[in-house]
Amino acid sequence: MFRISNTLVGTLNILTLLLSLAGMAGSAYIHFHKTDCLKVLMYPLLFGAFFVFVVSVLGIMGSMFRINEALYAYLLATFFVILAFMLFTVFALFVTNKVVGQKVSDKGFGEYKVADFSLWLQQYVINDKNWNDIKSCLLGVGLCQRNLSAAGVGCCKPPVQCGFTMKNATFWEVPKTGPAMNDTDCFTWKNKENKLCYDCNSCKGEVLANIRNQWRYLTIFNVCVLILLTSIYVLGCYAIRNNRRNQHLVYHPYGINR
């Protein structure tokens, strides 16, 4: 007869199995659809979902079919998965805890500067290879041909402090006296559609802000998974004890301990 902990472990592992499949599907969607130029969630989501999938299968085998060897492997694997999730969550909190957005218009758009973010995030974006890949993707999806939102301000418009005059969505006129402020972004801006402000610090700041937001969503997801995995881990310990008791009753039908 199934005891309640075995049933709960099996049920919760079916839930984590479905979540892991959803995570792998989300990673595949990001890879095959060019919807996320940053792809910052793709690999953490894929690897995390894969390990949760393996652990869930072991948990289901051990609890539903009362295979102690599978449960022992499940508990060991779960321990390392919990540890990995904890370390990654702490790391994600550490690299996303520094940001300042300055309101630059009555529309509430924020301009971000690279220096507003953690050094790790800066190095992730600023290195030539990553930034060239990101810039190519932004151009490929036609970011600045869409209706501008907060996500496109830093890349598609010159900074407000430059004092440029807007002629249309992508063409800005420089004052005859030059930019109002001696800012490198003001001189980096080009009216060409493949240039605009894609090499500006304000554009890199927008990308960093997007990365920060995605990692924060991933951190919230990690905390939820951690709570669920820890609960299942405790129940798994009880499931092993129940399996032992069931095996003991098979060998000692009268319940006599030796």
From TrEMBL:
TM region positions: 12-32, 44-65, 71-95, 220-241
GO cellular component: plasma membrane; plasmodesma
Subcellular location: Membrane
Membrane topology designation: Multi-pass membrane protein
Keywords: Membrane, Transmembrane, Transmembrane helix
Domain of life: Eukaryota
BP GO annotations: auxin-activated signaling pathway
Keyword Nucleotide-binding recorded: no
UniProt xrefs under Pfam families: Tetraspanin
Keyword Membrane recorded: yes
InterPro entries found in the cross-reference section: TET_plant, Tetraspanin/Peripherin
PANTHER family named in the record: TETRASPANIN-8-RELATED
Family to which the UniProt record says this protein belongs: Belongs to the tetraspanin (TM4SF) family.
The protein's name in its UniProt record: Tetraspanin family protein
Species in which this protein is naturally found: Medicago truncatula (Barrel medic)
